[in-house]
Amino acid sequence: MSIKLDLAPNAESVLLAQAQARGLSLEAYATQLLESYGSVAQADTLSAAERLSAFDEFVLNMESNAILPEEAFHRENWYPDRG
Fold this sequence. Notes:
mainly alpha
């Protein structure tokens, strides 16, 4: 099935950047987004194991923007007032 979308220029540029960051064409990325959105509607019919698998796949494909230094994971840096 083919569809045509008229996107605002800024929406297109954001989607294109996200697609390129994943090494995909805009068309492939849009297809992936639409297919994943459709599967959300089916989440109520999934078993617990299927939901866990879908969540694991989601996490693996997530884009991480946070790069934290090792010190960020030390307890004393989480609670500096508890010395």
